[in-house]
Each structure stands twice: as C-alpha cells, then as structure tokens.
Amino acid sequence: MDFQLTALQEELRDTTRKLCAGRFPVAASRAAGGRVDAGSWAELADAGVFDLRRPEESGGLGLGTTDAAVVFDELGRGLVPGPLVWTHLAAGLLPAGTVGGIERPVGAEPVLVEYLGDLDALVVLDAEGVWAVDPHPLAAHPLAPLDPLTPVWTVAELPTGDRVGSADDASRWRLEGAALTAALLAGVAAGACELTVAYARERRQFGRPVGSFQAVKHALADMLVRAEMARVQAYAAAAHVDEPDVADTVRAVAAAKLVAGDAALQNGKAAIQLHGGMGMTWEVDAHLYLKRAWVLDASFGSADAQAEAVALRVLR
Amino acid sequence: MFGDENKTLALCSAAVQLAHSESERRLAADLRAWLASALPQLPARPARDDWPARRHFDLTWQRMLFDAGYAGIAWPRAYGGREASPTEQLVFLEELDRADAPDVGVNFVGTLHAGPTILAEGTPAQRERYLPAILRGDEVWCQGFSEPEAGSDLASLRTRAVRDGDEYVINGQKVWSTYAHVADFQELLVRTNPDAPKHKGITWLIVPMATPGITVRPIRTIAGPSEFCEVFYDDVRVPVGNRVGGEDDGWRVAMVTFAFERGTGFVGEIMEGMRLCRQIAHIAQRLPRGKGTAWDDVELRRDLGRAAASIDACWSLTAWIVSEAARGGAAGVGASVLKLRVGEAFQELAEVGMRVLGRSALAFDHFDDVDGVSSARVIAEYLRGFGLTIGGGTSQIQRNIIAERVLGLPKEAPWTSS
Description:
Chain A is of the alpha+beta class and 316 residues long. Chain A contains ten helices and nine strands. Chain A is globular and about 65 Å long. With 418 residues, chain B is α+β, with helices and mostly antiparallel strands. Chain B has eleven helices and ten strands. Chain B has a four-stranded mixed beta sheet. A four-stranded antiparallel beta sheet of chain B has the order 2-3-7-6, with no helix packed on it. The longest helix of chain B is centred in the last third of the chain and has 29 residues, at 298-326. Chain B is globular. Chains A and B meet through helix 1, helix 4, helix 6, strand 9 and helix 7 of A and helix 7, helix 8, helix 9 and helix 11 of B.
C-alpha cells in the first residue's frame, strides 16, 4: 500500500494550480458569465485535462483515474467553468471539442443542460446506453442560472440521438463521472476553506482578527476537516476505479461523491457565514463556491441518492 | 503540458497503490494461517465487568502473540519486536480484526504508551527490566496523566513528587487512569517543580501499583462499569531510579509517545464502526416498524449511508496517514483531523442505530439475537461513543490545534469582561 501522491501527481497538482490561476481567474469567469470560449477550452485540452487517461498510442497521456482526480481537485478549487467531466469522459469517443452531458430525464422531469449554448456535442446517459445528441438544432432557451459561472438552458424536447455506447459503458461513465465530480467537489470545499481562512486572518473586530475567536476558529477547523475528508475519499475512490479488485469500487465512489458533496455544500455555507455581511455581497466569491456545490451535487447522483446507494452496499 | 513531466522520482512509486504489496500480502497470509490455529485455543471470553478474568484473558492472548512472534509488531527486534513498517502494522490490525481476535485490552498502555516511552527515553536497565515483561504478557501497565483539575489543560497537573534522599514522595490524585485496578505499574506524570512554568516542572515516573499509599477506585461511566479508575496517592514512595528522562523533563517525555502510533491509533475504532454499520443495517431489516421494517424508512437508510460513508472516509484517511508515515514523512495535518472525525462519525452512526431500535432502545435486553446482534450492543456503543470526542484531547482542543497549527490562526486573546 502506498496511498500518497506520486511525484508526477504533485507536478500535475502544481501545474494545474498555476494554469487555473493564470488562465482561469474567477474575475474573468465572472465577466464571461461562465461561457466557454473555444480558445480557453483548447488550452485545457492542450494541458491534457481531457486526454489524461487515454492510452499513449491514441495520443493520450496514459495516466490513471487518481492522476485525473488530482487535476480535477485543482479545477474545482479554481472554480474553472465548463463541462469538464463530460468532455473528459467523451475524449476519444467523440471528436475533440466542448462536450456536455446529462442523465436522460425520466417522465416529466425537466431537461436542463449546463453550458448548452457553447457545446459541440451533447452526451445523454440512460438505461440503454450512451447517446450523442447534436445540440445545435435543439429548441432551447437560456435560463437565469443559480451559479453565475454555470449558464443553463432548458430544452423543450430531447431527441434519442445516436447510440455511441452500451448500457455497460453508461454505467462506467456514471461511476467515473461521479468519481471525478467528487474530486471537483473536494476542490470546491478546499477553495471555500482557503478563501475564508484568509479573510478571518485579515478581518479585525474588537481590535483583533476575527480568526482568533474560538467560535470562528472552530468553524474554520471544521471547514478544513470536511475538505480533507473529501479530498482523501475522492482520491481513494479514483484509486479504487484504477484498482477495482481491492474492494467495493461502487461504494467507494458513492461515498466520495457523498462526502465531497456534503463538504462542498457545508463549506460554501460556512464561507458565507464567516465572511459576515461581506459574505452576503455579490462581489465576494463565497457564494460562488456554494452555488457551484449545488450545481455539482445535481450531476452524477446527488448526495441523498449516493447516501442511499452506500446504505444498500453496507448490506453486501 | 502534463506529459513532459511523465517521470518518477526515487522513493515514490509510479502510481498510488491501495492494494497490498507482496510482503504485506505475505504477512497477511501468515497471520491468517496462524490465527486460524491459535484462536480456537483461546479460553472462553470473560464477562465484561469481571476485571481479574479480563486481565488473565488479555495476558494469555498477549503471550500467544509473543510466542508466535507477533507481539510488539512495531517494536525494535532488539526488544523482541517485529519492526514492522506502518503499512504492515495496518495489515496486522486488519487481519486480527477480520478474524475477530481479541483486542489489545489491558495491554493497551504497556504495548502502545508506556512501553514505547521507555523504549525511547528509558535507560538500558529500565528497558531490560520492563519491556520484555510487557511483550510476554507478564505485566500490566496503566496511565496516570489526567487529574480532576487538569483535563484539557493537562500541563497544569498538581500531583506532587518531593525528593527525599533517593526516593520521590508522591501525594495527589489522578483520574481516567485506564486499567489501574488490574495494573502492576503506572506511567505517572508528577509535579516536581511548582515554581517553574507549568510545562517545565513535570517528571515521568514508573510507579509499582503495589506500593503502600496507593488507593484505586473504579469509575462507573454513563455506559456502566468501565476500564477507567481514580487513583489516590498518600505519601507514596518510589526510587529516584524509577524516573524516565530527566527531572522536570517529563512533559517532553510524555509527548514522545504520541508520535509513536503513526496513524494506526484509530484502526480498531474504524473497523468497529464498519462492523456496527452492517449490524445496524441487519437489525433495521428485521425490526418491525409500521407495516414493514425500519429499513423501509428512507431517511434512516440515508442517514446510515451517510455515517457509513464518513467511516469509509476515515479509513481512507488512515491509509493516507499510514502511507505518509511509511515514506518516513512527519505526521501532517492528518492526526487531529482523523481524531476529530472518527469520534463524530462513530457517534453519528450509533445515533442512527438508536433511531433504528426505536422503542427497543428503552431496554438493554429487549432482544439479544437479531442476526446475532443485541440491542445491548447498539446501546452500549452509543453510550461508549461519547468518550471518543472527549478522551485523548477533546474535539474542542483538536479544533484549536487544527486552527492554530494547520490554518495558522492567532491564539485567542485572554477573556476580559470589558
């Protein structure tokens, strides 16, 4: 057993962190309303974000899911917008570009698609398999998004599309999608924690930094605990995807999505509270972490759904 | 961009590895084979509150481990140990738990606290005298750290030891002394210099429990009879040669021990939690509730899933910390985070257990065989669980440590009413 970052993974983490800070500052994403332009998407592609796990002979980097989790952790921490997980999952299967995706709504459930206006392709998962839908002719109109960095469209009618993968493929997409989304959520939880700790060190009331008061300090410690638990479980889930024989991979991934989802939501909430009045303002980034947490919670199985999934695996 | 750095450094493997290595797998297989033949030879397990019987049982088990070469798994070979790596220690604990072997019991303080301290700070003569007896299962140790007025603020302890020739004369009181009622020796922290700053006037002593002037009184906790005791000292005389480390240097000596467990300190608790999870799920499926069973309640199922996921994450953090230690790294953020989270997760889980029991939680003995599980077990774990966020540094103290040492937040200013 050696469950620690490899030297390569430390490089990946540092390189991605630099890329996020340099090319995807939150201020720029705010100005663009989270719209994905082809240039910045190509930059993520060039960095290897999408081809990371593809075999080297197909032009990928031949790396594993844990390596990808390290990268997605940083993308989440940096609040990088765009359908990162879907494009990553579609790499090699669909032509390079901006690929979004959803789980096919059942019955009268609404059809909401993130980033639809900027998509080259839309992937739909259902019980039968993986389907490619051409997003361009869809009758859709933009909605007022919860997360200002995640534009959302409503689609009147979702066609069946072309089948590009089997039911087993769809299951694999769900598993890997949940694992990578857990990594994004772990990053969101960590980012919210860092922002808030920095503020609590600076902000002074009663003549001293508010971070010196135990009531505040303990809430910040809890933020760190949640972020750490989310990170190790997200990495563990990814490692289980790479080493499916070690234990129950499905349970590890569900636990990761759940722990990381709860961590991101709770840390987003705590970030707003611990910023005091400033936390209620649009300008401070605290709300962006909370809102992104809700967006990510709603894809690849909500925390509630994952909690139920874990409970069922307890019986095995 | 990432592809350029596709090379590995010495010491670090090419990929994260959750699976056990070849040598870890060998150790696991050897252990499994030995446990299969050894466990049936164990005497019957004693009643929970029969302490002399528990002492005898736990020492018998320790002797079996010793004879098989598994005692002191992390101890140096020179003292009869196995010098196992942190990940091998994890394998050892996993396999013992999986086989439902006895836990460390009364040997806890000797093998995991006092022994390692004497190993690190004792004289050669002290090591010779005490260490083999601990490993062989001949002698039991207890701890004398906390006092009624020194809990979280341990360094303010007041039990006095005054030098009289070549003896120390001890007066005072300790509390939460684990296994004192069955122990042969105690690792005792005493105040030798009341004028020095509080951390600088403490000394670490070895106290034979049979010394005149010692009175032990068991503590009844919210969970009933317990391993905890109060110990009173009335002119208790021990030789100066029983001091470990220098006079007034006991705080540093005591702190050395805490670095010893290297991430494996909560493995038992986490595995216990995983077992309790399964048992609660089985009870829920069989306990009638309304027209169906407790398992039909989606809210209960989700809360059990949440607790199970938290415990799984504690296991992942353990694997992380143990791997960090195996690489020779210093203990990082992990230890306090793990301590805090294990206690809370266990409590959350046991609380789901109480909700599953419903009205069956009103009595310890309402049922004792729903799939081999009793209501008493769930209730006992629920009550015992409160200690996990108090003992060994409360959760509030852990949060202070995390906030100040990890997040770098300033210490709180002294309270004033103005």
